[in-house]
Amino acid sequence: MNWFIPVVGSPLYQVVCKLKKLKFAIKEWNKNSLDSPGAKKNSLDSPGAKIQEIRKKLEKLHNDMGSDPLNFLFQQEELKLQADLAVWLAYEEKQMKQKSRESWLQLGDRNTKFFYSVVKTKQAKNHIKHLINEKGEPVTDIFGIRVEPPDFFEKLFNQKSIGMSSLRL
User: Fold this and answer.
1) Residue 131 phi/psi, 5° resolution?
2) Where are the domains of the chain?
3) How far apart are the first and last CA of the chain?
4) Which of 23, 2, 11 is nearest to 146 (CA)?
5) Distance from CA of residue 116 to its chain's centroid?
6) In the structure, what pLDDT confidence band is assigned to residue 103 with cuts at 50, 70 and 90?
7) Taking Cα atoms as reference points, which of 162, 124, 130, 166 lies closest to residue 149?
8) Whole-model pTM over 0.90
9) Could you give the C-alpha distances from 40 to 16, 27, 36, 95, 146, in angstroms and in order?
10) Engineered SS bond to 47: which of 61, 73, 92, 127, CB 3.0-4.6 Å?
């Protein structure tokens, strides 16, 4: 991938430039990845619409199960729908958290001691202490932490099943 193309500037500037190059490829990959909740085939596939659709299917299935509650196929379908519903509810909740954080920042909290303590706490939580490589081993040294993510995403993007070979950064 283009992650290893040299960029002139400070280390932080280099990372920012490389991430900008990846942004569009990752967005395209997310749209095309059929197994991700973020994959949208049309405008009706928003989390709220998907959740309503699954709930309607569950309601219909429960009505059908009333006539034959021990039917194995009905039970399997119910488990599948419940799992799908849980995934989409979690996705919607994550989206709502992001939107609420965004609106909080847009409304503009004052530069108070509380605001700075919240920011410091968040920065401490966002610090990467180690990564787990594909062998399941922790990587703690700085060089390994710098090399592991690009290697992981390069392997992921180069998989034939997701069709990323046509994208260029």
Assistant:
1) -125, 160
2) 44-108
3) 7
4) 11
5) 27
6) low
7) 130
8) no
9) 27, 11, 9, 15, 32
10) 92
76-101 burial: b if 16+ Cβ within 10 Å, else e: ebbeebeebbeebeebbeeeeeeeee
* Helices then strands, each counted (H, E), the chain: 5, 2
Lookup: tokens for 14: 């280099």
Alpha-carbon gap, residue 20 to 126, rounded angstroms: 20
46: three-class secondary structure by DSSP: coil
At which residue do the structure tokens 């967005």 appear?
27
DSSP string, 25-43: HHHHHHHH-TTSTT--SSG
Q: For 71-99, what is each residue's pLDDT tens digit?
A: 888 889 989 999 998 998 888 878 777 76
Per DSSP, the three-state class of 92 is helix
CA distance 82 to 79: 5
Do residues 17 and 7 make contact, with C-beta atoms less than 8 angstroms apart? yes
Element (H or E) spanning 91, and its range? Answer: helix 72-107
